[in-house]
Design goal:
48% helix; 11% strand; alpha/beta; binds coproporphyrinogen III; 336 residues; 7-stranded parallel sheet; TIM Barrel
Length: 336
Amino acid sequence: MKKITNCLINKDTSCFPVWFMRQAGRYLPEFRKIRSQNPDFIKLCLNSDLSSEITLQPINRFNLDAAIIFSDILMVPYGLGQEVKFIKGKGPKLSEFNLKNFLNNNRNDFTKKLNPVYEAIKKTRKKLSKEKSLISFTGAPWTLIIYMMGLRQDKKNINLNNIKNKNFEKDLILDKLNEYLCIHIENQLEAGADTVQIFDSWAGLIPKEELSSYCYKPNSKIVEFCKKIGLPVICFPKGIGRNYKEFLDSVKPDGLNIDYDVDPLWARDNLDNVCLQGGMDPKILFEDEEKIFLEVDKYLNTFKNSPYIFNLGHGLLPETNPDVLDKVIKRVNSFK
Ligand code: CP3
């Protein structure tokens, strides 16, 4: 059985599997080379040969236990008919959300539009050795709605009133989006993915009293669906602090990625019956070796008797030195 599956499903504690969010990305010179020749990011994600090649770049360099398919959470809004552009230095920008067009989507057209993503998974699975996992992913509804409806004002603020006043629309959009996310997950499973991670990157912006309706419930529906189709699922409700406990109790995923604001000791003692993943601040990788290893060892020692997948508290940053990452991976691999 794959190490990651064994950890997620059987809660195995005999080793620490390791992979990284954004392990295929700008910190790798071989990625930057392909990227410089492909200025349209969405088109690159729709080129199954190149996206499979990019997915395997970190696997060819490092001793990792999983590949994560090179794609983006915004491929779902793209599949649902919104235009998606990445503006340098400003992040993603989507064309205006239109409820009627959104509701007019159907399963076949959506699947056809995203078919290159599924082709990339098939191609990657053929080249990836059997003991390694192939991780698929989606954004959680809340995080996607922020991009789809343009609710972000700046890094820390969103305009919640824009959606709060539209109670009927809000539930309709959340439910419909959930339906398509489940279709996307099932398509990825059929193509050969063996694990899925749900990114709720902006969960930390939800007021406490709204967490249940915008975060726990939509994530629960997806987790229930994954359990029904037999696909191990990892959730990442970034930035919700001590509400991680409530999240776990109501959503019950197989795996839970903690972010860098969560104290690992608190997590170990309060988040039970789940395989924890990640936590370390990606910025630690800019420090000197001694400091990095101290921090890596802190996570490994904390979780040495628990099911734990080594990863970070958010994605790798573009300034990360790949040689430093290699040393971290070797340290994790030699720990138990
Ligand atoms: O290696 C992997 O983790 C797999 C690929 C992956 C990408 N995006 C590729 C990518 C994954 C899992 C994602 C998820 C994603 N995308 C999230 C959730 C995780 C998180 O970071 O919170 C979010 C919020 C997005 C939306 C998105 N896509 C943003 C905000 C950006 C950054 C814009 C920028 O210029 O920094 C992207 C672009 C993106 N997605 C890049 C990569 C490698 C950088 C593209 C480039 O080369 O310019």
